[in-house]
Each structure stands twice: as C-alpha cells, then as structure tokens.
Amino acid sequence: MVAFIQPLGRLYSISHCLKSLVIKSNFDTQTAYKKIRSILEIAKSSASTRALMEFDNPPPSDKAKETDDDFAIVLELSEDDLHFEKKKKLLQNKGFNPKEQVYLNSSSGPDWISTTLKVMLQIARIIQLDEVELYFGEDDACSSVEYYSPRNEVEALNSILLLLDISLSSVTCMQMNVLQELREAIIGMIRDFGEKNSVKTKILENHSCGKEECLLQWGENNGIRTRLQIAYVKGAGRGAIARENLNVGDIAVEIPVSTVISEELIRESNMFHILEKIDGISSETMLLLWSMKEKHNYNSKFKIYFNTLPKEFNTGLSFGIEAIMALDGTMLLEEIVQAKQHLQTQYDSLFPTLCNDHPDIFPWEVYTWEQFLWACELWYSNSMQVMFPDGKLRTCLIPIAGFLNHSIYPHILHYGKVDPATNSLKFCLSRPCSEGEQCFLSYGNFSSSHLLTFYGFLPQGDNPYDVIPMDFEAEQEDCTEGNPRLDRTTHMVRGTWLSNNHNIFYYGLPPPLLDYLRRAKNPMLQTKSLLQSNLENEMEVLGDLLSTFDGMMENLGETDPNDRENASWDVRLAEEFKDQQRRIVSSVLNSCHKGLRLVENELRKCMNEDTRD
Question: What pLDDT, on a 0 to 100 scale, did the predictor assign at position 565?
C-alpha cells in the first residue's frame, strides 16, 4: 500500500479566544456568567483553559472568599497536561503547588497589584510551557526568569485575563473592583509587551493590490467580515494590515464555513468516485488533486481566490541543486532532499495511471510534476487545520486568512475552531494591533528549518525553536538477558544568548543535556557542588562539547557575503539559514570556553585549599 502525502498545514491551538468583557456599574452577574459559560463551551478543548480552571457552576460567594477584601483565585495545572510531572517539579522548585491559591488583598499595600500579578504570572508561565520551552527552562529555585518565550508570555498573560473574566461573573461588588483593577493591569502588561516587541511595517506603495482587493470584495459578498486590508510589505511579500486600532479580544477577521475549501468539496466533485477507490489515499491528497484542476475552472466559486495565488511559492521544496549544495554541513540538506524524493514518489504512484485511465477527469496538461509540486507547496504553506462542530479535524484552505503572516511575536494565537453559534471561524487578537500595523498569527511552534522548507521564509528575530538535536547512544545492560544493549536518547541545544543563567554548572546550556553528560561521565556524581571531583567532571563534559561543536563549525564552512549579491533567491535563503546555524554553534562554543574558564578558576581555588590543608 502506498503512503500518500498529508499536507502539514498550519498547526495551532484548537481553542476560542475569549473576547474581553466590559464591566459596567450595572453588571448583571448571572447574565455575564451565562455568557462566559457559552464561551467556555467553545474554549473547553484549550489546554490553557483546562490548565488554569475547571468551572462548572458559579460558586457561592462564601466559598470563593473569606472577606470582601481578602479572597483567592486558584491557578491549577491540569493532571491531563502531557508534561504534568515536569511542570509540577518546576512549580515546586519555585515554591508553588500544582494547585496554587493566590490571595487578593487590596489593603495589603500600594504595590499589591504588581506583587499579585508577579506571582500569578510566574505560575501561568510554567503552566503554559511547551515541550521545547520546558526542556530549556531553568529549574533552579534561584532563577529569575522574566519570560520563557514571546509565545509563552502572551499565552500566560491571556490565560490570567481569561481567569479574571471568569471570576468576575461570581463575586461581590467589592471583589469586582479588585478583579477589575487586576484586569486593567493585565491588559496594560499585554499592551506594553506588544509595544516592546512590535515589528515596523513598511508598506510598498508601488505594488498593485487589484487582485487582492477583488478577493476582499468577494469575501464581503460571501459573508466574510474583516478589519484588515492586504498590502505588499517590505521583506514579507503580501501581508494583512489593520485598518483600525484592534484591542485584545477583537475579531480581526471572521470567515463563514461556506467560504472555506474543505473535503466536502471533493466529495461533490466528479473525481471523488475514482479517488475513493485508491487504497490508503487521504482526504488531504484528494483535495490537493482537486485544487490542481479547480484553479483552471473559470466557473469556480473560488476562481478569484485562485487568481491571487502566486505562480511560484519559492519554498525549500523548490530549491535548486546549487541551493541544496549550499546547505552542506546542515541537517536541512538531507531533510529537503528526502522531502523532495518523497513527493516525487507520491507523484509517480498516482501518475501517469490516473491520466491514462481517466484522461477526461485528469488531463495530462493539468497534472504535470511542476503543477503537482505547486499544489503541494500551496497546501503546505497555506492550509490550516480546522475543528468542525462534528468534532472532526479537517485540513482546509481559508481565503483572506491566508494573508496573515507568521511571527514569533504573533497578535493571534488561538484560531481554528468553528464557532457553532455562527458557523464561522474567528481570528481573535491576543495582543493589540495598531492601525497600519501588520497583523501576525502563529503558524505553530516551528523551527526556521521547517518554516524554510514548507513556507519559504526565515522568521525575523530570535526563534526559540531553532534547535540543533544531538543523538546519543549509551550501552546499557539488559536486565532480562544480561546482555548489553544500546539506548538512544536525544537532547538539543539552541543559541545560548536565549539563556538567563551563564553561571558555573549552567553556562547558558540546557540543564538536561549537561546532566546527561555528567551522569555518562560519572554516574555517582549527584550534586552541583564545588568539589574537585565535580569540577574535574565538568572539565571533561565541556571539553567533549567543545570537540563536538568545533566539528560542526568546521563542517559549516565559512561565509562569503559578497557571493550573495548576484545569487538566486534559493541560494540566498540557504546561506541565510546557514548563517543562523553558525551563530548557534558559535554561541555554544563561546559558552563552553567561558564555562571552562569558570571551572578552571574554581578548580584552582579548590586545589589551593587542599594544599594549605
């Protein structure tokens, strides 16, 4: 059986972004609670909502607090969290419990808001950690981490905002004032964070957007509501620009399901009865083949949408030989070669058979390899996974929303679940977006190598998901047969400039990697103390890392910026990626060298003390 391609699409959280509640003097508690309950029914699948609060019925006021000016909000790490044990340990190391009560007392002092939010934010950050952030997180109690990543910070702030909005539905008037003060402070923190990390938008006025304007008009005629316009942006191609100031919770664009390209369309086509008989073919592959033909259909409902698509997507899948060779020394070279070979295999398994057997439905001129690669790049770079009311996750193309570009500082984090009340997709803001600013969303927690291969760009800024994996094989004794066996384990490194701790025993390097290497050298060493045996072990560990990354840097070779001026787009992109890899490797080498100097200094002190004794 042939394994057919499954376009990855944009992976993202399946949750609904809660629109900010406006608290008025005549606040109706029960009405507001019903509104929040309906919103939570949509957001129930969100890990962040589950992690912070399970809320079925409005609690009686005497259970929610002790006095009107001294009551608590509970932040809880869900036991269903995939990384529950690791996050629990990290919380405990910071002095918190998996279910932590944060008392709110406005009479405790003038700084009660900042003090309270600091505690809440520390807990929320840990609850919102993903796998990569958790791996690189510093688990020592003394570490003062401001934030783990831009994504994590916005998620943590918004999860607290959601919790406050829920709590506002079941409190006394005095408590409402306290919660409202906290809410306004959180909104201010979200706004300040966005302003510090905003990306300047320079619109290229000399580019015509006639096709895009036609698509916006088509969308309006078909029920799409948007507060965005499309423009050409320097360094980003086309992007979605805010027409007005948008605040947290505002809907930037709302897309009716009737305008979404999903598998229902293939079922209505004349090729479905042929494709469904192919063993193992996925609905994503069927849609890919449908789109190859539909873009030539002048009577298509989506003709205006297809007209806005580029003739070439210029992703890593279109890299030529020279660009691929420019990636020599990186793992991306092999990844792109394998991906292209995989697509060629999939194409060969479908064609020429379909064209020969059904030439009227699958004409040769439409189903060439070049057109197939174009369609693959379309679905890889523009598709989104959408959760429909029937609970099924489908890969779709979403007109207009496809102009929202990716950023490591996104405005929109949660999207992709159909609101059953309106039968539409809503793209809500998790941080404000000013008029004239490009509105970004997050395609997912992807490395630059993934974004280059499937989307054709490298993100601006320091991508926290740019990691270099390191595979280790350790010989372990098989307890059942007494024979040695190899255990494979994977660790990773990233740019050490992202770390806050460059002290001895840390060096800006990931603690799990260092602990693994220490145990491999000497399983009996359990503590990070300034003993001679520990320090000698550190010297060996850092020396091994130096040797490994010296080899990596040598394989990457040296860069020559002058060669890029006349280079093709793919060669320039390959060289830019390689520069990123050099920067990461260089930072690891620098950290190892500095670490060795720290250890050597402590070792000399230790040996001098032994001499005096």
Answer: 75
Pick from 263, 224, 234, 552: nearest CA to 385: 263
| Nearest of 419, 414, 382 to residue 257 by alpha carbon | 419
pLDDT tens per residue, range 451-472: 999 999 999 999 999 999 999 8
Which DSSP symbol is given to 563?
G
Q: How far apart are CA 423 and CA 444, in angstroms?
A: 24
Average pLDDT over residues 186-204: 91
- Bridge-based pairing of strands 440-441 and 405-406 is parallel
CA distance 372 to 293: 10
Boundaries of domain holding 437: 210-455
Helices (H), 206-330: 210-221, 263-267, 272-275, 283-294, 303-307, 321-326
Q: Which residues of 262-291 are buried (b: 16+ CB within 10 A; e: fewer)?
A: bbebbeebebbebbeebeebbbbbbbbbbb
What is d(CA 147, CA 145) in angstroms, rounded to the nearest whole number? 5
Query: What single string gives the DSSP state of each residue in 119-145?
Result: HHHHHHHHHT--HHHHHH---STT---
H/E element holding 340? helix 331-350
pLDDT (tens digit per residue) in 33-56: 343 344 344 343 343 333 333 333
Within this chain, do residues 564 and 508 fall inside the same structural domain, yes or no?
Answer: yes
Question: Could you tell me which residues come within 8 angstroms of residue 106 by beta carbon, excluding any fewer than 6 positions away?
Answer: 69, 112, 177, 178, 181
Three-class secondary structure of residue 99 per DSSP = strand
Q: Quick one: tokens of 364?
A: 């040769």
| CATH (domain of 393) | 3.90.1410.10
Same domain assignment for residues 439 and 483: no
For residues 570 and 449, state if they share a domain: no
Q: How many domains does the chain have?
A: 3
Task: Tell me the pLDDT band of 542, cut-offs 50, 70 and 90.
Answer: very high
Q: Are 13 and 47 in contact (CB under 8 A)?
A: yes
Other beta carbons within 10 Å of 51: 24
* pTM (two decimals): 0.85
Report the Cα–Cα distance between both ends of the chain, in Å, rounded. 74
What secondary structure letter does DSSP report for 302? T
Q: Quick one: how far is CA 585 from the chain centroid?
A: 23
